[in-house]
Amino acid sequence: MPLIGTITTISVGTTVPSNADGLDGGIYFRISGGVVLSVWKKDSGAWAIIGDINPTAWTSFTPSVATETGTLTTFTATARYRKVGNFVIYNGSLQITNAGTGGGYIAASLPFASIGGQNGAGHMFAGGGVDGVMLTVATIPFGLALWKYDGTTAITAPMAYTFSITYETT
Fold first, then answer.
1. Dihedral sign from CA coordinates of 156, 162, 165, 170
2. Among 117, 105, 121, 118, which residue's Cα sits nearest to residue 153?
């Protein structure tokens, strides 16, 4: 079943969702032991499964990385994803050892194009005098962008970043 339209709510639970719960357009992740087992969407008052997830089906991905302005001198990036129907669960990490002339937001490629406008979260830690700072992660036309929660640049070195986003693809 293709995902079309606005997502109204996102819920998580350990059992199959009841039709009495949630709103049309809602998304439900069924989990067990912290692992997502299936994804459901509610349409016309009924929940329908849109994808089963194999807990071991992560795929490694090496994203390309750039900055809004300038260029990073030295960095490494790794990521992994799971694709379930039109959903992509994407987790990554980035280590900047020399920020060079990089400025603005950090841009990273996605394994599949996004329909746009989806948000996730991230964290920057272990260096540059900044620890425990939350990042905003959002899909943009050519990938995803990371910046500090307050809208300022997160680019500094040395710095490690982790991020996660679940987004819809076509």
1. positive
2. 105
Radius of gyration from C-alpha coordinates of the chain = 17
Q: Which residue has the higher pLDDT, 126 or 60?
A: 60
The answer as to CATH 2.60.40 being correct for domain 59-168 is yes
Rounded-to-integer distance, Cα 147 and Cα 140, Å: 13
Average pLDDT of the chain to the nearest whole number: 83
Q: Which residue has the higher pLDDT, 94 or 122?
A: 94
Instruction: List, by residue range, all CATH 2.60.40 domains of the chain.
Output: 59-168
Q: What is the pLDDT of residues 142-162, one digit of tens each?
A: 789 999 888 899 998 888 888
Measured between alpha carbons, how far is 84 from 123 in angstroms, rounded to an integer?
25
Contact 8, 21 (CB under 8 A): no
In the block, which residue shows the tokens 């639970």? 13
